[in-house]
Amino acid sequence: MTLRAYQPAFVGGELSPALWARVDTKNYAVGLKTALNLTIQAHGGANNRAGLEFVGEVKASGHRTRLIPFQFNESQSYVIEFGEGSLRFWRNGGLIVAPGGGALELASPYSSADLDELVFAQEADVMYIVHPRHPVKKLSRYADDTWTLTEPTFAPAMTAPTTVAAAAQSSTSGQTGYKAHTYRYKVAAVSEATGEESLPSGEASCVNDLTVDGGINRVTWSAVTGASKYVVYKFSNGSFGYIGSTTDLLIDDENITADTADGPQIGRNPFSGPGNYPRAVTFIQQRLALASTDSEPQAVYLSQTANYENFGYASPAKDSDAITFRMRARQVNIVRSMLAARYGLLLLTSSAEWVVTGGSASDAITPSAIVIANQGYRGAAPVQPINVGETVLFAQRSGGVIRDFSYSYGDDAWVGKDLTIMSRHLFENRSIKAWAYAQAPSSIVWVVLDDGSLVSLTYMKEHEVWAWTRHESGAGAIFEDVTTIAENGEDVPYFVVKRTIGGVAKRYIERLHTRAFDRVEDAFFVDCGLTYSGPPVTRLIGLAHLEGCEVVALSDGNVVRGLTVEHGAVSLPVAAAKVHVGLPYSAVLQTLDLDLGMVQDIGSVQGRFKSVSRVVLRVEKTRGIFIGPRDEARDGERTVEFKQRSTEAWNEAIGLYTGDIDMVPPASWNRAAGMFVKQFDPLPMSILSIMPEVTLGR
User: Fold this and answer.
1) Is the peptide bond before 316 cis (omega within 30 degrees of 0)?
2) Could you give phi then psi for residue 461, rounded to 5 degrees?
3) Contact criterion met (CB below 8 Å) for 155 and 269
4) pLDDT digits (tens, 9 = 90+) for 593-649
5) What is the pLDDT of residue 635?
6) Strand 313-314 relative to strand 353-357, pairing
7) How many C-beta atoms surround the C-beta of residue 617 within 10 A?
8) pLDDT of residue 697
9) Low-confidence residues of the chain, pLDDT below 70?
10) Confidence at residue 171, expressed as pLDDT on a 0 to 100 scale
11) Residues 6+ apart with CB under 8 A from 520
C-alpha cells in the first residue's frame, strides 16, 4: 500500500527524544528529530544558517572576553570588547583606531573573572556598568574615537553658591515689641542645562525681628557658573523651608513664611565603599535604578527624576526625590536584574519575580506612591533577561529553563510558560551563559550555554512560534559569548568563539553573515571566513587566522574543496573575482518517525515497516542538497544529491532554485521512514516542506 505524507512546516524545531512518541501533540506534525545548523523561519521553512565572518582576534586570546553592545542609533552601533583590564571598540566589523594610530583602547578595572557579572544600561551616549565588587562606572562616547570610562560621584553636578551672607537690611531694633531673633538661611543653585538643584550652601544668619513693621533681611551670595536661578531656604520650626527663587544674587526677606513642606536637598551616596556596589541597573521613568549590594541585597535605589547621578532627597520628600525601597519576602531575594516594563519596574530576583508600580494613586513611582507586588516564585539566573516586544524572556534560577513573561489582562498578573519544555535535551545539565536577540530579519534568540554549545530560538509569540535548533562549527569551536547590534538594516549577532588553530587556543570575534542575497556568488556559508572581491586571482592571502586548517571556498559560485591554509594563503585551481573561504560545516534536517494518523483498515503506521520510495521537497533559493534514509557520510551509498544543472549555461555557476524537486532516496525498509536532508557545501538551503511517498509493509 502506497500513501503520501506532507509536512508543511518545521516550526516545532528540534524536539526532545522524550517527545518522539507524542504524535498526539501539535508540535509533532511540525517538529524535527535533528535541526543542526538550521534556523527556523516564522513562516515555517528551515534554512541552513549563514556563515560566521571572521572579524578579528581578541586582544588577549588567553583570557575570557565579553562583548557588550553600544547602540546610539540605527547608523551608529558598536561592539565593545571587554577583556583582561581593557576595552576595545569594534564598528562594522573593524577595530576603531585611536587618533594617534593603533587600536583605540581604554584601561578598565575588570579582570576576565569579573566579566560574567557585568551588568549595563545605556541611554544615548552614556552607559552605566555595575559589578558587585567594583564601583559603578560610566562609559561615555564623544566621537567614534573618543571615549571615557569614569566613576560617578553620585552627587549633584551643580555646585552650591559660596560666600552666602545675611544682614539686617532694615533693622527694627529699638522699636516697640522688638524681640531679637536669629534668622538662618541657605541657598541652592539650579542648573540651566538640566534643571538640577545643587545641595544647599553653608548657613548664613543675622539677628532681627521681622515681625515688626519695616524689618528686612537681605541674603546675598556669589554667582555659580551655569546657574539659571537660585532657591533660598529659611529655618523655621526645626527645619529649612522654601521662601523664594530668583535670578538675582540676592533676596530680601520681609518676614516671608517658610514652606517647610519644600525643603533643600540632603545629599546621599548609597554606593560608597566595598559592600555597597550594586549588581543590577536599568532606567525607569527618567530615573536611574541601581539595586542589590552585598550589604543590602534586597534594596532598590531610584535616582531623582532626570538627574541620574543624584540620589539625594528632601524632608519631607518630594515626588522628584530619589527613592529607596526593599522587598519583604520569605527569604532574602538578591535582585538579579531589573527592567522597565509597561506597567512598572520588573524585578527578577534569585527566588521570585516582582513588579513595582505607583499603585492606584499614581501613574509614576514616587516616594509617596509605591506598590510592590509579587508575580511568582520561579527565581532568575544571573544572566540578564531579554525584551522581545512587550514580552520578557528570562533564564530560570536552575535547570536550564527559559521562560517568557508578560502581562495578562485576563489574569491581571504577569504570566508565562517554559520555552524549553519541547527541547529539554538541549539544556540538560547546562545553564545559560549568554544570549542576545536579533529581531530583524527572523526574530531569533541566540543562546550560548555553559558547555560552549550554541542553540537558537525562533520566537514569535503572536504566531505561537517557538522553535529550537542547535549549531556547531569546526576547529574545535567553543562558543563563549554573543551580542547583537543593528547593522545595515539587520540585527547582527557577534560571537566570541574559542578555536584550536595549529594546536593553539585562539579566541576570535566572528559575526553572522547576512543571508540576504540574490546571486549564488554572494552566498556566504563558511565559518571563521573572509571574502575576497576584486580582479580575478588564484592565490588568496590574509588567512593567517586559519593557518594549517582545511578550508572550503565558494569561488565565483563554484565549490572548491580540499584547500589547506599555508603561510596564511590558499591557491585556487581557477582564477576567481569573488571568493568566500573559511571552515566548512554541515546543515542537517532529520524528520521525525513518519505518522499518518489513523489510516483506514490499518490504524496507526507507528512501529510498522515502511519504505520511502520518492520525496518531493519544496525549496526556495536552494542549491546542492543531499537526501537519504539514514545518517551516513556524504559520499556513502545511502544519500543522493539533487542534480540541478539542466538549463543553466555550462560556463556559469549553477543558479539557485525555487520550487519543487523530486528525488528518489536509496531504498530502505525500517520502522521510522524518516528522512535526512543535508547541505555539505557552502551553499544555501531553504526547505519549505517535505512530501514523502511511503510504501507500507505487512
Assistant:
1) yes
2) -60, -40
3) yes
4) 998 877 766 778 888 888 898 999 999 999 989 998 865 444 445 788 887 655 444
5) 42
6) unpaired
7) 23
8) 77
9) 600-601, 630-637, 644-652, 698
10) 79
11) 554, 557, 623, 653, 654, 655, 656, 683, 684
Spell out the alpha helix ranges (H) of 510-614: none
Residue 650: its pLDDT value, please?
42
234, 215 Cβ separation under 8 angstroms: no
- pLDDT of 412: 79
Q: What share of the chain is helix, strand, coil (3-state, %, to 5)?
A: 5, 50, 45
Q: What is the pLDDT of residue 652?
A: 67
Cβ pair 55, 90 in contact under 8 A? yes
Strands 465-471 and 454-460 come out as: antiparallel
Domains observed in the chain: 2-48+587-696 (2.60.120), 67-84+274-501 (2.120.10), 165-266 (no CATH), 526-583 (no CATH)
Q: Which of 400, 401, 398, 494 is nearest to 446 (CA)?
A: 494
In whole angstroms, what is the distance from residue 285 CA to residue 340 CA?
Answer: 8
**What is the C-alpha separation between 468 and 84, in angstroms, rounded?**
33
Residue 642 CA to residue 631 CA, distance in Å, equals 17
Residues 619 and 631: beta-carbon distance below 8 Å? no
Secondary structure letter of residue 51 according to DSSP: P
Reading the block at residue 403, the C-alpha cell is 521562560
Sheet with 391-395, edge to edge strand ranges: 386-388, 391-395, 402-408, 413-415
How distant, in Å, are the alpha carbons of 162, 422, 473, 569, 689 from that of 592?
A: 79, 14, 24, 43, 14
Stated as kind and residue range, the H or E segment containing 431 is none
> Nearest 5°: phi and psi at 680?
-95, -25
Residue 74, C-alpha cell as written in the block = 540605527
Rounded to a whole number of angstroms, the CA Rg of the chain reads 33
C-alpha cell at 291: 539595586
